[in-house]
Amino acid sequence: MKARLPAGLLVAALLLTGCGGGGETASTTPKVGLVTKTETNPFFVKMKEGAQKAAQANGMELMSAAGKFDGDNASQITAVENMVAAGVKGILITPSDTKAIVPAIRKARDAGVFVIALDTPTEPQDATDALFATDNLKAGELIGQYAKAAMAGKPAKIATLDLAPGITVGQLRHDGFLKGFGIQEGDPAVVCSQDTRGDQARGQTAMENCLQKAPDINLVYTINEPAALGAYTALKAKGRERDVLIVSVDGGCTGTEAVQSGQIAATSQQYPLKMAEEGVKAVATFAKSGQKASGYTDTGVTLITDKAVAGVEAEDTAYGLKNCWG
C-alpha cells in the first residue's frame, strides 16, 4: 500500500512540479487580474498593454480575460470566478453590465480579493473597492460646451447616438453632453436618439434612421468615435457631411485623426493606459501591505479640436496624436 502525502504537502508538490530554480515561481508571484469588455477594441488593447507593463514593473503576474462582445456579462462572471480560484490578489474590471456583474464582484471581495473598476463604474459604484476612470460626465460636458459655442446661436437639431441602456459610462457621457449644451433630457432640440453599442456599423445605421426621422439634423453627439465615424459615413452618403457638426468622446488615434481631417469637430480624450497602470500599482500596494485604495481616482480628460472656441479649454490634434491610443 502506497503512503499518502498530507494534503498540504501534496498541493505544494504539485505547485513546484516543473519549476526551475532561481527567481519567483508561479506559486509565489502575486497575481493581478484584468477583465475587459472585449479584447478587440483598441481602448481595451491599450488598457491591457498598460496593465502588462505595470505588472512587470511591480513584480506581478497578469491574468487577463474579456467578453466576447460589449455587453457579454456571462463571460466576465466566468473570468472573475476563474481569477478568484487562481488566487489573484486583485481584479481590475471594466464591467459590461454594471448591475448584473455586482454579485460576482461581491463574492470576489468576500474571498479577500481587492476589486477595482476601470473606466466604467458599477451600479452602485461602491460595489467595487475603488474606481479608476475618466470623469465621463465631464467628458460629455466638454463636448456639449464646445458644441454650444460652435453652433454660435444657430437653432440646434440634435441626434444623440448613445451606447445602450443600463451602462453607466454611456449615461454619464449623454447626461454630460446635455448639461454642457445647456439643455435637459426631453428637450425638443433633441430630435432623435438611437443606441449604437459604440459600434461603427451600428452608428451608421442609427444615423441613417435619424436622418429619415429628421432630415434637418445639424448636430450629432456620439458615445465614441467608431459611432461618430459611422454617423459621418451616413451623412456623407446624403451630402450632409460638411454642414453637420459631430462631437464625440474617446481620443483614440483613429478618432483623433478624424478630428484632424475634419470628420469629427471635437472629441474628449481619455487615457486607458493610465487607468490600467494606476490600477495595477494599487493592487501591488495591497499585495505588499494590505493597504487598499478607495473611492474615485480621476485619470483625466482633455478636449481635442483644431477649431477652438472661446471659453472652452482645449488642445489641438498635435497634442491629441501624442497622447492617443490604438
From TrEMBL:
Domain Periplasmic binding protein residue range list: 32-290
Protein localization: Cell envelope
Signal peptide span: 1-22
GO CC, alphabetical: cell envelope
InterPro entries, sorted: Peripla_BP_I, SBP_2_dom
PROSITE patterns: PROKAR_LIPOPROTEIN (PS51257)
Molecular function, one GO term: carbohydrate binding
Keywords, sorted A to Z: Signal
Family assignment from sequence similarity: Belongs to the bacterial solute-binding protein 2 family.
Protein name: Sugar ABC transporter substrate-binding protein
Native source species: Nonomuraea cypriaca
